[in-house]
Amino acid sequence: MALTIGPLRDDLAFGAKVTGLTAQDLQDDTMRQHLRDLWTDRGVILFRGSDSASLHRDLSQCFGPLENFPFKESTVDGHPDLVKIKYYPDNGSCYEVNGAMIGGWIPWHSDLIYTDTINRGGILRPVQLPRRGGQTGFADQIAAYDRLPEGLKQAIDGLHVVYVMDLNYANMKYARPKHIRFVRGAESFMKIVRRGYQYPRVIHPMVFTQPETGRKVLNVSPGFADGIYEIGGPEGDALLAEVIGYSVDPSQTYFHDWRADDMVLWDNWRTLHCAAGVPADETRVMQRTTISGDYALGRKLDGQGLDLVAIDV
């Protein structure tokens, strides 16, 4: 199959689809640079029609070195740089979402936003797909910033969002559906949440500039957000909720229907993602790499004597 490159969807301002990539293509320095440039420009790349299992880690390293995931309970045995994202009917985190029992549901978020050093990106691929459900959603935050009214851009300039590490998504202030109830947690989930208070709060700027292009990025993750650092209380909460409405505008999101030969790469600095989940009796197993590279704008908040003046946004 010849390699082809096209849009992810014709009406989207982000995303690309690459079909037929091979291991031989990855040996070509020109091709590797072309893929990196495409990623910078489009933010999300769907790779389809490749031997995804053998290419997964090599393709990921085309975009940067891999790093180990901080929660060892969620990694693949023998591969600390591979995250296992799974839901089993007898061992998986489950929520009642708007009246339906949903397994493996994850709200809109940026990976590792609850730490001060977020990763550059990742590549997700399926290991076992469900018969129903299991979509992954993506939302570009360069396009989201461009949609903001000018007054709202000015209002958030120089502000920061506080994030907390709480993996119980029913506790989310800004990413929860209208009706949600935590039903049960996977074994790995229960081990991680026992350490929840050991993670300090962190802050990240609400806007930053993509270094390669100078484009502004709306840097707000609905998941794990607790409020605006400079404006506490109802005023700050209302401002953050208004901004988040633009960040996950349903008309500008993409939900991917997985095939067995798919891999999806996303830029974690500029793209939100979510998991739509599966019916509670289904099984879904995915693996994800973690591509290293911190943008160096996050800061620990608790007990660190934070100096906001020193943060360059």
Structure description:
- There is one protein chain.
- By secondary structure, the protein is α+β, with helices and mostly antiparallel strands.
- The strands form five sheets. The chain has an eight-stranded mixed sheet with strand order 1-2-3-18-9-21-5-4, covered by helices on one side.
- It has helices at 29-42, 52-61, 141-147, 150-156, 187-193, 233-247, and strands spanning 4-7, 16-19, 44-48, 75-76, 79-87, 94-97, 100-103, 106-109, 121-128, 136-140, 160-163, 180-184, 202-205, 207-209, 216-218, 225-228, 253-256, 262-267, 271-275, 278-279, 284-289, 299-300.
- The longest helix is centred in the last third of the chain and has 15 residues, at 233-247.
- It is globular and about 55 Å long.
Measured as a percent range, the helix fraction is 10-25%
* Low-confidence residue ranges: 305-313
Question: Helix-strand pattern, N to C?
Answer: EEHEHEEEEEEEHHEEHEEEEHEEEEEE
- Rg over CA atoms: 19 Å
| Count of separate DSSP helical elements | 6
**Beta-strand percentage range:** 25-35%
Largest sheet entry: 8 strands, mixed
> What strand order characterises the main sheet?
1-2-3-18-9-21-5-4
Structural class: alpha+beta
State the distance separating the first and last CA atoms.
44 Å
**Principal-axis shape:** globular
Mean pLDDT across all amino acids: 91
Number of strands: 22
